[in-house]
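Incident review: delayed structure delivery

Summary: a single-chain prediction request sat in the queue longer than the usual turnaround. Root cause was a stuck worker, restarted by the on-call engineer. No data loss occurred. The affected request and its eventual output are reproduced below so the record is complete for anyone auditing the incident later.

Affected input:
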Amino acid sequence: MLRRRQRNEMFKKVGFIIIVLLLLWLIVRTVPHLFRASAPDEAAAVVAEFYRYEQTGDFGSSWELFHPLMKERFPKSTYVQSKAHIFMQHFGVETFGLEIERPEREFDVNIIDGMQVFSEAYKMNVTMKYKSTFGVIDMVQTCYVVQDGKEWVLLWYYPSSGEPQQHESSE
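Output delivered after worker restart:
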């Protein structure tokens, strides 16, 4: 009888330890997600900062907010020269108006065709409103923000060839 009681006590202790370990595991898995509640705001802030630089013609600073894949696609000097040449000289504009949609969280996203798939990203459509020598031009660009290490960085959407981008109106 005494052995049975000792065995029951041991099972209770082992069961308690297993429950405590399970709870600790759940807490460790859940706590990081609690602190990511501001992730959409952080993603939106990166896009806003990027386009504020673009609005003032500070293309070098906006380039710094690109994901390494974008930096590889556009060397800094080429990007700065091209943006200044096309938008400031050809369009004849010094700045533009801006509308940024709310971030949408997406999973397993193929942002640049043929490149890595991102497990999590925030998608935003940005409308730039130019008053140019060619009249008023609204240009919509799809941006994604992902984490690269601890930094939030921006990518532009490059779908597979022939795949038109669907843009939903927010009206």
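Verification: The chain has a mean pLDDT of 86.
Action items: add queue-age alerting; document worker restart procedure.
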